[in-house]
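Before a colleague's protein record goes any further, I have to sign it off. I want your independent view on whether this chain really folds as the tokens say. The record follows directly below this note.
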Amino acid sequence: MRVGFIGLGSQGGPMARRIIDAGHDTTLWARRPASLVPFADTPAERAASPAELAGNSDLVCVCVVDDADVEEVLTGEHGVLAGLRKGGVIAVHSTVHPDTCRRLADRARAYGVTLIDAPVSGGGPAAAEGRLVVMVGGEPGTVAYCRPVFATYGDPVVHMGPVGTGQLAKLLNNVLFTANLATAADTLALGRELAIDQAALAQVLANGSAGSFAMDRVAAAGGTLDGFGAHAAPLLRKDVRLVTDVAAAAGAEAEIVTSAAGAALALMNQQRPTVS
């Protein structure tokens, strides 16, 4: 399978490397030439535009930051849909609103192209080791077609249901992770007030029944969320807002988890809790 990859950041870069190392004919495109430098030692082709990349691909993987970026690389004048052949597939690895994927899937269908959503969780180290969690929304046949590529960087690769359900799963994952960050930080802070050695408590909590990915991250950061604000907070804030919007549209109750997530974001930014 010929694969195109757009979005060579801290997570997308290792994903693309895994695809290349698995032997797939791969084409890359990036806004910034510097993003392509780490791939100079690979056989991957470089494209001048998303459309040119799409012309060389059967499957195009997109791992950019947000909804606007996805829209731009797919539907712009020189976007993926301008170059992808009929029968081609687009996999959106970015974390975006489920409705964005559903709407873009409808638009892609007019070009004879299938779009699925396949957000991932685990970060750059997990991508490099091939153990990302991949949450896929799409028709079973299309998911099966893409699975060999997804399996180069993902384990497990989980089919969640129709288009949009992968995004729903990722948003719920992220809002719970954000809420867990607040609980982990508050627990370690309470231990400090009780005169318990912070490093020792962090070691116990990370390795005991209270252990979690969030606890590991907080413990590694010295027991606080101080180091999360610059990079993680804007992305997590975006996802909490998306969950709030999706839940409100569905008439679902999400106040408990989003309030806890808002507390974590406030700690990161040293401001009053808010998810609006």
